[in-house]
Amino acid sequence: MTTHARAPLDAVARRVLADLGPCAAWDVEPAWPDSLALAVIDAALPPSERAALLSAYVEARRATGTDPATDGLEELRATLPQLPDTPARAQVGEVAARLAATGVLTAEHLRHAHELNRARLAQVWHGAPGQASGAGWARLLVLLGIDDGDPDLVVATYLGSAVGRRLDARGTAEVLQSLARALDTDPATLARAVRARVCAVSRCG
Fold first, then answer.
1. What is the pLDDT of residues 57-68, one digit of tens each?
2. Of the residues 129, 144, 159, which one is the last residue of a structural domain?
């Protein structure tokens, strides 16, 4: 471990395994690899609200004989007015509108745009109501199977808590490297597992 960390490496590794389970059991596969619509609904809302809107959206789309698993933002924005008028629907609509204004309309668009300008797209997302913390953006990338490439705030916060000290980007990367070696995995997989776990139980936004 580096000077960025206070807790011994073995203690941090035990904490990670307790939270995430054995490495072989980590579920880091994308949930919605081809549906930006479903990923936005899932990522933009807290756990208590996302299931209901996801179910309503999927039901509405299937009722028309279409497959929501390949929907983009055009389909999402056209369908939202047909769903119950709730704060959750409004929140998703705002996020979808902001992303669509950048020209990002599908999961494939986001992958390409993300490679070219990750920081700009993240700022667009964070500017939507309720999305300032960055957890929703991190969850979106997990759901679509996009590897962020760099440790983000979600990973830094989790690892900082585990080691007992606030970590900057360099410190986070060093801790990831050390833990990955100790757990016999790679830093990217470990970071995805952390994002998936944290975002699954947190209020995304």
1. 999 999 999 999
2. 144
